[in-house]
């Protein structure tokens, strides 16, 4: 079935009006475009999936700012590209801050990256707090977050485990992350 630009425009308008079905339609229709774009850029399936989910989360949060005079796919790709560039900059900044200038540093130092007892305590407290926030979500959102981030399952593995279509898993994870972010923001 061929989807017309008029149907897409109508779905975008429905999404702007908060219709969940429209968000699902847009996610399903544009997922492969954004994911394929990122996969070519980062050459890592896991990273491409994460950036793609972040792209849709950001786009859906800012859907009211979308101008219908432009193409929705171009808008999504631009958001996706900016997210990927930001992530690359952060990664590169982290790497460059850890390197030393060999001309100025005659002695090579081996950095101990193992966490200090203080780091372990902070991480455990943050994890406990995060788990408390996750428990505030509905059980089906808790499940998908647990499978993705704590059991590190791929989307396909989650789909098989939950016996749900892959796109439903993607939408549920997207929604779970958004709800979790809202809970964390409210509690702080």
TrEMBL record:
Q: Name one GO biological process term.
A: DNA-templated transcription initiation
The UniProt record lists the keyword Transcription regulation: yes
Record keywords:
Sigma factor, Transcription, Transcription regulation
Q: Which residues form the RNA polymerase sigma-70 region domain?
A: 32-92
* Domain (RNA polymerase sigma factor 70 region 4 type): residue spans on this chain: 128-180
Q: Does the keyword Transcription apply?
A: yes
Q: What is stated as this protein's family in its record? A: Belongs to the sigma-70 factor family. ECF subfamily.
Q: What is this protein called?
A: Sigma-70 family RNA polymerase sigma factor
